Amino acid sequence: MNAPTGETRKPRVAVVFGGRSSEHAISCVTAGSVLQAIDRDRYDVVPIGIAPDGRWVLESGDPDRLRIEGPDHLPSVDGDRASVALSQQTGSTDLIVSEPSSPPRTLGEVDVVFPLLHGPWGEDGTIQGMFEMAGVRYVGAGVLASAVSMDKAYMKIVLSASGLPVMPSVTVTRREWAADAQACRERAAALGYPLFVKPARGGSSIGISKAHDASELDACIEEAHLHDSKALVEISAEGAREVECGVLQALDGTPETSQPAELRVGGDHEFYDFAAKYLPGEHTEIDIPADLPPGVADQLRSLAARAFEAVGCEGLARVDFFVMPDQSLVVNEINTMPGFTPTSMFPKMWAASGVDYPALVDRLIRLALARDTGLR
């Protein structure tokens, strides 16, 4: 990595955020925190936003513009800014910026991409595949691990095949629902109420609702189908505690686990919904470390590392568990790009485990820079 003068230059990190999914605003919030934390003495940083319509632009990177001000003031990428794209020349990882009435200009080579995208078209293997095709290093899980972990129905299949406990569930596609809604209702009812219904490939608790009985099921499935053509219907883990664990790769590839953390949702929230997660003034309490018997805490961390490896994850992940009333453990889901603000669960768990936020960001960039492109 040599600059035109022959002097060694800083690695250039492209921070990519926004995207086309319903989690666009959360991705912007995450990016604001990461942009603020990256050591500019060590890295050259380029903020790249993906507008809701899919347009890639050179963003300002102003962290203050990327904050949530309230439910009616969510941040968004400014799609009117100058367009940006990777060079189409073979072997090139240059960024090309295009503006009206000006010739395209080159920002220079990208050494690593930090994709802070949540949900479809970003966390699901799509953008990872583009980076693989372009030969660009990037932070986080590869194509397969991203795709499997994003689709909760397939995630359950993979985890179950690896001997990990998951909640029983069925899937209901839009096509199945339109063709024979009654058959779908019967499959769901066989699980036993209450049930949670969620978009199979969603996140941030968007589109999730609880069917307490059969009278509420149709509305829950139709709400999930607004966000995804595939709805996941699963048994509600009644009486369970929600405990999460962070997984972070060491430089030799070994998965390391954080102190587990427990979420306790208060107020009028029946579960950990979007408002409880992100909006100010909500009554969600977090215990780090979670108050678990030593044997249960050790088992949970072991299962988190096993889940990470079962899907072939890289870099980082947050593994979410239900601790059942009898102290047994069930894997709820694995997030390959978890919420990443300093107040999000993943960074808070690692801060409690001795890795503060700037060190966490730096470690993930160094991991990405050290790994090979292509099959590995």
TrEMBL record:
Subcellular localization: Cytoplasm
Residues binding ATP, per UniProt: 152, 196-198, 204-205, 234-242, 332-333
Essential cofactor(s): Mg(2+); Mn(2+)
Residues the record marks as active site: 23, 204, 344
EC number: 6.3.2.4
InterPro entries for this protein: ATP-grasp, ATP_grasp_subdomain_1, D-Ala_lig_Van_CS, D_ala_D_ala, Dala_Dala_lig_C, Dala_Dala_lig_N, PreATP-grasp_dom_sf
Pfam families cross-referenced by the UniProt entry: Dala_Dala_lig_C, Dala_Dala_lig_N
GO BP terms: cell wall organization; peptidoglycan biosynthetic process; regulation of cell shape
ATP-grasp domain residues: 156-366
Keywords: ATP-binding, Cell shape, Cell wall biogenesis/degradation, Cytoplasm, Ligase, Magnesium, Manganese, Metal-binding, Nucleotide-binding, Peptidoglycan synthesis
Principal place of residence: cytoplasm
Residues annotated as binding Mg(2+) 2: 333, 335
Catalyses which reaction(s): 2 D-alanine + ATP = D-alanyl-D-alanine + ADP + phosphate + H(+)
GO molecular function, one term: D-alanine-D-alanine ligase activity
PROSITE patterns associated with the record: ATP_GRASP, DALA_DALA_LIGASE_1, DALA_DALA_LIGASE_2
UniProt: Mg(2+) 1 binding residues: 320, 333
Domain of life: Bacteria
HAMAP family: Dala_Dala_lig (MF_00047)
Function: Cell wall formation.
PANTHER family on file: D-ALANINE--D-ALANINE LIGASE, D-ALANINE--D-ALANINE LIGASE A
Family designation: Belongs to the D-alanine--D-alanine ligase family.
UniProt protein name: D-alanine--D-alanine ligase
Organism: Nocardioides szechwanensis
Gene that this polypeptide is encoded by: ddl
